[in-house]
Design brief:
Helix 11 (333-345) packs across helix 12. It contains 13 helices and 15 strands. The chain is 36% helix and 20% strand. It has 412 residues and is an alpha+beta fold. It folds into 3 domains: 4-94, no CATH class; 107-187, no CATH class; 195-392, MM3350-like (Structural Genomics Hypothetical 15.5 Kd Protein In mrcA-pckA Intergenic Region, Chain A, Roll), CATH 3.10.290.
Length: 412
């Protein structure tokens, strides 16, 4: 039989019937909520995605449950399910990734209580010296991901046969704390980078304009309100109008301003919501919307591209790159922008001189590329940051004023 090489953390697809799901989630009692999460979160009729390591643990759990007296009536069905999972596992040759001899696997801080540390030491004696068993209360211990996976595996093996309620409870909490640490520190996750060193990279583009007007920025941890300021700066606008974010069908903004008077108006305070609250913990790309000036109706697709560690001596925020100059404030949204560009490109257009006097020259084909030492988007007061950006990219020096004869065209 051909076997596919895979690591313990690789995800595989498991096809379970509705009856098999019910058996696992309802008919037998499994303490480990992290192990059950892939099944519980996956809609019925869809295959379950689970790591090989967790699949092996799940098979062990089910097999142990089939041996209990009060599950005698379920024993044939449980054993059949175990065999199904074991057959799937046999199609893979599990390989633990080899560590470079010259490289040291990084370790990460995990907090365990005194009872949790004792439970770990009983199952993995070689970790006893590092577990600080003589110290009371919770203590932070450094473990590699390999060691954390070993702790999770041994605790899961022990909990199914543990008779003492107190010991079983300690093992369950060990599993929970260890699984949370593995999720937090998995490769690519934002938790691997200290919050003080974490830099978020975002790509922001205006919707419905072609060629696209976009910017790529790097910023430190901040609230969504501050992200709004960074976006305004990177595009060269002046924060004249209201804004909001739409994230997973939820509105984020200033509830005092955006509350439209309806009882069911559900707006999350963007001044109390941080980037780390909304981006995926595993660091995967994530898209959401930013809206500015509800009259002109500007919409932005904002893509979280990942986290990286801040460079020593670098100051943030930074505008890395982008294409094309931002439309002027109050130009009338996308329709007004296209009319504006047409008039500005034709000196004989009937509105050309009026628009030129209103805004000045417009560098439509601006290309933004950050060069070493060019700190065009630096931290500081918003007005100062805006002027620095406009000078660096030749966007003009003063904020534009609304030209009364140019009626803003709403896209709403």
């Amino acid at each position: 039989m051909h076997r596919q090489f895979a690591s313990p953390t690789d995800k595989v697809i498991v096809h379970l019937t509705n009856a098999e799901r019910k058996l696992i989630l309802q008919d037998i009692f499994i303490f480990d909520v992290h192990l059950l999460r892939p099944l519980a979160d996956t809609p019925r009729e869809q295959p379950v995605e689970i790591s090989l390591d967790d699949l092996d643990d799940l098979a062990n759990y089910i097999e142990s449950k089939s041996q209990l007296d009060f599950n005698k009536h379920l024993k044939p069905t449980l054993q059949q399910l175990v065999q199904k999972l074991r057959d799937l596992l046999k199609t893979y040759a599990i390989e633990v990734p080899k560590q470079d001899k010259e490289a040291t696997e990084p370790s990460f801080p995990v907090s365990y209580s005194a009872s949790q540390r004792r439970a770990i030491a009983e199952r993995i004696p070689e970790l006893s010296e590092r577990l600080r068993l003589q110290e009371p209360n919770a203590r932070v211990v450094q473990f590699t991901l390999t060691e954390l996976r070993q702790i999770k595996k041994e605790a899961r093996r022990a909990v199914v046969s543990e008779c003492s309620g107190m010991q079983r409870n300690s093992l369950c909490t060990v599993i929970e704390a260890t699984c949370e640490a593995l999720e937090k520190y998995q490769p690519g996750s934002i938790g691997r980078i200290r919050s003080s060193k974490r830099v978020y990279q975002l790509r922001i583009g205006i919707v419905d304009i072609s060629p696209e007007i976009w910017r790529r920025i790097q910023i430190k941890e901040c609230t969504l309100d501050r992200l709004h300021e960074h976006i305004q700066l990177a595009f060269g606008w002046w924060n004249y109008h209201l804004h909001q974010f739409l994230i997973d069908d939820q509105r984020y903004g200033d509830p005092r301003i955006l509350d439209d008077g309806f009882e069911d108006c559900n707006i999350v305070d963007s001044s109390a919501t941080k980037l780390s609250d909304i981006v995926p913990k595993d660091g995967k790309r994530f898209q959401f919307k930013y809206e500015y000036d509800f009259g002109d109706g500007w919409e932005f697709e904002t893509l979280f591209e990942g986290c990286l560690e801040a460079k020593s001596g670098e100051r943030y925020p930074i505008c890395l790159e982008g294409e094309r100059a931002c439309p002027p404030e109050d130009v009338g949204g996308v329709p007004g922008y296209y009319e504006y560009c047409e008039a500005m490109a034709d000196p004989k257009h009937e509105e050309h001189e009026e628009l030129l006097g209103w805004r000045g020259p417009y560098l439509q084909c601006l290309s933004v590329r950050r060069r070493p030492g060019n700190r065009s988007c630096q931290s500081g007061a918003s007005a100062t940051m805006m002027i620095l950006f406009k000078q660096a990219f030749n966007l003009g020096g003063a904020p534009c004023r609304r030209r009364e004869s140019l009626q803003p065209r709403s896209s709403q």
